[in-house]
Amino acid sequence: xxxxxxDAAADAMAAHYAKAGIGRDLxxxxxxxxxxxxxxxxxxxxxxxxxxxxxxxxxxxEPSDVLCVKGSGWDLAAIEPAGLPAVRLEPLRKxxxxxxxxxxxxxxxxRANLLDPGAPNPSVETLLHAFLPHRYVDxxxxxxxxxxxxxxxxxxxxxxLYGGRIGIVPYxxxxxxxxxxxxEIFEAAPEVEGLVLLKHGIFTFADDARQSYERMIEAVxxxxxxxxxxxxxxxxxxxxxxxxxxxxxxxxxxxxACSEKDAKREGAYLRLVMEFRSGAxxxxxxxxxxxxxxxxxxxxxxxxxxxxxNYPLIVPPPTRPISRATTPVACRPNAxxxxxxx
Length: 342
Ligand SMILES: [Zn+2]
Prior knowledge:
globular
C-alpha cells in the first residue's frame, strides 16, 4: 500500500480551510482522514476514526485544550472539520481515574464537554484517543492487519511481524475498559508507533499528521506483504449436481423466503433487491465442501459487521428442475448477507 500524501494537496487543503479560520493542524487532520477513508483496504464506509489534540476557542472565545475526534454519522472519506467535534481534553482524561464507566455515562460526559453543544456525538472510541498523548491518532480496521489479528495465536504473530514497534492489546469491547487497557500498554512501551487491537483493528499515532498517517500505511503494508508470502487458502470443492438452476429461477424463491411482513402496512411485505455475483473467487468460496463452517466463522473486520452482517444464509446447490426440497425454509433476520439492497 502506497502513501497517498502529497505536499501540494495538503497545502491546498490547509489554504482552503484557512479562509474559514480553521488552523493548519485541523485542516491536515481532515486531509489524512480522507486519505484513510478513501482506501477500502483500510476502512469501509463509516468505519475507523481519527483525532487531533489542539487548542480552540470555546463559545465565549476562551482558548481550550480539546480533542477533535470523529463524530458519529460521518464518513472519513468525505469528512469536514464539522465531522471532528471538539471535546474538552482535561475532563476526558480525568475519567481515567475511575474504576468503571458505563457507555451511557461515558456518552453523557463526552457530550457535556463538547465546545459546541450542537455537535454530533464523539466516536465510541474517544477515550482511547484522549488517553494517548500524541497530537494525531489514526485508527482503521485494515483487512490485512485483521487477517493476522483475528487468528487464535494473533498476539505471537503480531509480535513477530512488528517486533517492538507496535504494542498489542487483547480483545475488549470498545469503551472505557478498552481505552484504559490500551493506554496502559502504550505507557509500558512508549516508544511504540501504534497499537494492534486483537480482533478489532490498528491505531497509529505521532505528533505530525503525515507521520501518523504514514505509520498506518507502513504497518498495513507489512501485514499485506506477510499475507502475500503465505500460500493461498484452497477450498476443497463439494460435489455439485449436474444441472444447476438459473439465477432467474432461484432469485424469486430466495426473495420470497427473505421477505418480511411490513409492520407498518397491513398485508404488505418488505422485499429485497438481490445482486448476483459469480466471479472466480466467489465461486471458489461458495462451492467449498466446508462452506457452512467457514462462512459462519464471523466477518473479518468490524466494518463488515455493518456492511454485510455477520452470518450468511446458506442454501443447498439448486438443481434443475428446481424443486421445493432445495428451497430454503427461512432467512435469519438481520443476519443475512443477501440483505444488501433493502
Ligand atoms: Zn475501531
